[in-house]
Automatic annotation (TrEMBL):
Any coiled-coil regions, as ranges: none
InterPro entries named among the record's database cross-references: GDSL, GDSL_esterase/lipase, SGNH_hydro_sf, SGNH_plant_lipase-like
Cross-referenced PANTHER family: GDSL ESTERASE_LIPASE 7-LIKE, GDSL-LIKE LIPASE/ACYLHYDROLASE-RELATED
Organism expressing this protein natively: Brassica rapa subsp. trilocularis
Descriptive protein name: GDSL esterase/lipase At2g03980-like
Predominant cellular place of this UniProt entry's protein: secreted
Subcellular location: Secreted
Keywords: Hydrolase, Lipid degradation, Lipid metabolism, Secreted, Signal
Record carries keyword Transport: no
UniProt similarity note: Belongs to the 'GDSL' lipolytic enzyme family.
């Protein structure tokens, strides 16, 4: 339904482009966004559809990078922070939290869909808070990746293996206090949802076109599944696995392509090789581990769909798909996030990118619609 409404609105705007002032087109767009209330992605469907991936999870544990970081980097010695305006301008209360965008992340919308609280950042919790949280924790850290050294040139961050270490610490120091018996703890872990969204920074920091894309993907995937097996060994049984975004179409990359704004198809191809191997490997993992479930999220093609054909180097009338909201004038500099003194656009919801490396909350909301309502992005892996 949302897809057809979106297409209908786009058609109307295109038909009356010659007579409708641009300011009024913007107002219509914002009205459309307002109609897409967060309740649209409630786990209570309008029809008798079952909840995707079963639902009824007692907790959501988030492993990832800046796509889903909810504030861990606030507490680390790094340049990669987002705990200042204009970040968070459309979040609850309009306050920056450390999320790399103007509002909610895809992890937030996953929590909303499954009727769980938004998951707090591990590094921001006191020991007392950790001892009393049984609905999940977020360990994600901006700039980090699957390889242990990824992102370290920018400052401290929590690599994938460190995030799994912190989850083990959560079990040993906190969850074992809440669940008095091993069967109770095992039940909690087996029924909880473990989301991962990590790996694109490994391409950003280490991959170059002189490398063999297959070899790079194989090494990255090997390290990724070592940590998935560790999580399984700790008791995780339900995994929500995001593939990697089309890095070659993001503002920090297309600012340097010729013509400016065109996607880097070679870089996207390298990332897609990893994604294809990841998808096939999940089928193998499903067969290898009994009583273990995987949901595969095709974030790559979702963002590619929003962006449009790779040859596009100009935005559409409806959404700006090539330039970030912040900074409002982007020169393709090395930093892929806003600084405290960056100027930003006045209407982030006309953009799919909030900064050169991260989506707006509109894009994240559209992801949730595509995943949970239209079910065109997220698939349960079958053996």
């Amino acid at each position: 339904m949302v897809y057809f409404i979106s297409c209908f609105l786009s058609l109307i705007l295109n038909k009356i482009e010659m007579v409708l002032p641009s300011s009024l087109k913007t107002c219509l767009l914002l009205l459309f966004i307002c109609l897409l209330n967060v309740s649209t992605i409630s786990s209570k469907p309008l029809t008798n559809e079952t909840v995707l991936f079963g639902g009824k999870f007692p907790a959501l544990y988030v492993i990832g990078d800046s796509l889903v970081d909810s504030g861990n980097n606030n507490h680390l010695d790094t340049m990669a922070k987002s705990n200042f305006p204009p970040y968070g301008s459309d979040f609850e209360g309009g306050k920056p939290t450390g999320r790399f965008g103007n509002g909610k992340t895809i992890a937030d919308y996953i929590a909303i869909y499954y009727e769980l609280p938004l998951v707090p950042a591990y590094m921001g919790l006191s020991e007392e808070q950790k001892n009393n949280i049984s609905t999940g924790i977020n360990y994600a850290s901006a700039t980090c990746g699957i390889f242990p050294d990824t992102g370290k040139t920018v400052g401290e961050c929590l690599s994938l293996s460190v995030q799994v270490d912190l989850f083990k610490e959560t079990i040993d120091k906190n969850l074992k206090k809440m669940f008095k018996t091993q069967p109770e703890l095992s039940k909690h872990l087996a029924e909880s949802l473990f989301m991962t969204a990590i790996g694109v920074n490994d391409y950003s920091f280490f991959y170059n076109k002189t490398m063999d894309a297959n070899d790079f993907a194989n090494k990255l995937l090997h390290e990724f599944f070592i940590q998935i097996q560790r999580l399984h060994g700790l008791g995780a049984r339900k995994f929500f696995i995001n593939n990697l975004k089309p890095l070659g179409c993001y503002p920090n990359i297309i600012a340097h392509t010729v013509p400016r704004g065109r996607c880097d198809d070679d870089l996207n191809l390298a990332v897609s090789i990893y994604n294809a191997k990841l998808r096939r490997s999940l089928t193998y993992m499903k067969q290898k581990f009994s009583n273990t479930s995987f949901l595969y999220s095709d974030y790559f093609n979702f963002m590619l769909g929003l962006r449009g054909p790779s040859r596009n180097h100009a935005s559409s009338n409806l959404l700006n798909t090539t330039s970030p909201c912040c900074p409002s004038v982007y020169d393709g500099g090395a930093l892929t996030f806003c600084s405290a003194n960056s100027s930003s656009c006045t209407m982030p919801d006309k953009h799919i990118f909030f900064d050169p490396f991260h989506p707006t909350h509109l894009a994240n909301f559209m992801y949730a619609i595509g995943c949970f309502q239209e079910r065109k992005i997220c698939y349960v892996v079958r053996a």
